[in-house]
């Protein structure tokens, strides 16, 4: 297993630690959770950078990197719903979008097509990470950034589906 894939796996392994800390109720659990989430988020940037720079792109990485991102973000958002820090309806919309795009990618993959991350997908991921960190650190106006993340999440989902609609329309 190469370094990029180890970083991806490391991100997944940080998720249970994040969940235990954020839901533990210990003093300073939110800032400690923010540190864990930040470390995990940095591995997202690093694994992709290393994979591209050193030609370490693998099928494992193509599959696991986006899955690791979704696991991390979903765990953070669901935990924050439990703590009543974010509204559940927003989290439901975000997670539904992730399922929809993942299913679209699976359909494409079954036809030998790889759907690369779009610029809107990258903006979505960045906005989600920033909004989660702002909520965890209780930075003022985090609600505005959370709304931006929601809008980008919806738009990027629409963009993926629209650009790849031929995969889901019936052909005769």
UniProtKB/TrEMBL annotation:
Keywords from the named record: Cell membrane, Lipid biosynthesis, Lipid metabolism, Membrane, Phospholipid biosynthesis, Phospholipid metabolism, Transferase, Transmembrane, Transmembrane helix
InterPro entries reported in the protein's UniProt record: CDP-alcohol_PTase-I (IPR050324), CDP-OH_P_trans (IPR000462), CDP-OH_PTrfase_TM_dom (IPR043130), CDP_ALCOHOL_P_TRANSF_CS (IPR048254), Phosphatidylglycerol_P_synth (IPR004570)
Catalysed reactions, as listed in the record: a CDP-1,2-diacyl-sn-glycerol + sn-glycerol 3-phosphate = a 1,2-diacyl-sn-glycero-3-phospho-(1'-sn-glycero-3'-phosphate) + CMP + H(+)
E.C. number(s) listed in UniProt: 2.7.8.5
Pathway participation: Phospholipid metabolism; phosphatidylglycerol biosynthesis; phosphatidylglycerol from CDP-diacylglycerol: step 1/2; Lipid metabolism
GO cellular component, one term: plasma membrane
Family classification: Belongs to the CDP-alcohol phosphatidyltransferase class-I family.
PANTHER family, alphabetized: CDP-DIACYLGLYCEROL--GLYCEROL-3-PHOSPHATE 3-PHOSPHATIDYLTRANSFERASE 1, CHLOROPLASTIC, CDP-DIACYLGLYCEROL--GLYCEROL-3-PHOSPHATE 3-PHOSPHATIDYLTRANSFERASE-RELATED
Name of the molecule in the record: CDP-diacylglycerol--glycerol-3-phosphate 3-phosphatidyltransferase
């Amino acid at each position: 297993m190469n370094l990029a894939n180890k970083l991806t796996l490391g991100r997944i392994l940080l998720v249970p630690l994040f969940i235990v800390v954020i839901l533990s109720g210990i003093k300073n659990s939110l800032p400690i959770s923010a540190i864990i989430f930040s470390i995990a988020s940095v591995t997202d940037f690093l694994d992709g950078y290393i994979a591209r720079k050193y030609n370490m792109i693998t099928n494992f990485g193509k599959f696991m990197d986006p899955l690791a991102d979704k696991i991390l973000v979903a765990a953070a958002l669901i935990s924050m719903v439990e703590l009543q820090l974010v509204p559940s309806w927003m989290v439901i919309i975000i997670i539904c979008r992730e399922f929809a795009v993942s299913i679209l990618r699976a359909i494409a993959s079954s036809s030998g097509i790889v759907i690369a991350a779009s610029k809107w997908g990258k903006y979505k991921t960045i906005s989600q990470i920033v909004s989660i960190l702002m909520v965890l650190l209780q930075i003022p106006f985090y609600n505005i950034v959370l709304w931006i993340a929601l809008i980008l999440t919806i738009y990027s989902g629409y963009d993926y589906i629209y650009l790849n609609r031929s995969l889901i329309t019936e052909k005769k």
